[in-house]
Input
Amino acid sequence: MKAKPIYKIIDGKGRVLIPKELRAASGMDYGDIVKLNIHQGVVTAKKVDLIEVGDQSPEAVEAFVHAAIREMPEDTQITLAARLLELIEQRKGRRHE
Output
């Protein structure tokens, strides 16, 4: 049985909502890394667990960090968050000097 097409509108920031039933069927969940590709005018989205070796684009690094944080123990997450807050405060202090 062929699935019925689903139509969505791209918003002003270029985002498209992937419906829950499609996310569930593809195993996608909040915070997952999704690899986007285009071939002959067809855009694909695929859930991946690892970023391709050598891809150091800001988007790839951000996706890697999000995936790594999800796997960290809670106390490590809290320590990391505290360190990030310290860095933010340091930068604020430099701006006001």
